[in-house]
Write a structure and sequence with these properties.
A two-stranded antiparallel ribbon has the order 1-2. Strands 3-4 form a two-stranded antiparallel ribbon. Helices cover about 55% and strands about 10% of the residues. By secondary structure, the chain is mostly helical. The model has no long low-confidence stretch (mean pLDDT about 90).
């Protein structure tokens, strides 16, 4: 867990960068990665928006925050909006405090739905594909 002072430091850094980091979703819409809600589509179709405030307000380590953000950005840029929303919603409960250990995931695994298992697998496979080989075990 991060201390309150580290959270405030991260918030200060994020506020300084807030206006500068824009990504383009697969749909062509521009998204400020520091917004609490990412609009992926111009209409109200499935997957039109991602609620991401929980990630920005969490007390997880900055490294975990960055890795999770990298995966979500990859999905928003390269996958259908519905897919991105499904992966985020299915992985969120397991990532609220950062990236869990393999031991913790194994303990919970048998009780997960197939959809959650698939999203968690996709998340970790994407981490590996993005060059974070430590998560490939």
């Amino acid at each position: 867990m991060m201390s309150t002072s580290l959270i405030l430091q991260r918030e200060a850094i994020l506020n300084e960068q807030k206006k500068a980091i824009i990504i383009t979703a697969r749909s062509g819409l521009e998204i400020n990665i520091f917004d609490d809600r990412w609009h992926l589509l111009p209409n109200k179709a499935k997957g039109h928006a991602l609620q991401i405030d929980w990630l920005h307000k969490s007390k997880m380590s900055h490294d975990d925050w960055q890795l999770i953000l990298d995966v979500y950005i990859y999905y928003v840029r390269t996958k259908a909006p519905g897919t991105a929303c499904t992966v985020v919603s299915n992985t969120k409960p397991f990532l609220l405090d950062g990236i869990p250990s393999l031991v913790n995931l194994k303990i919970k695994w048998s009780g997960l739905t197939t959809s959650r298992k698939k999203s968690i697998n996709q998340f970790f496979c994407t981490l590996v594909a993005l060059g974070h080989r430590i998560y490939g075990e």
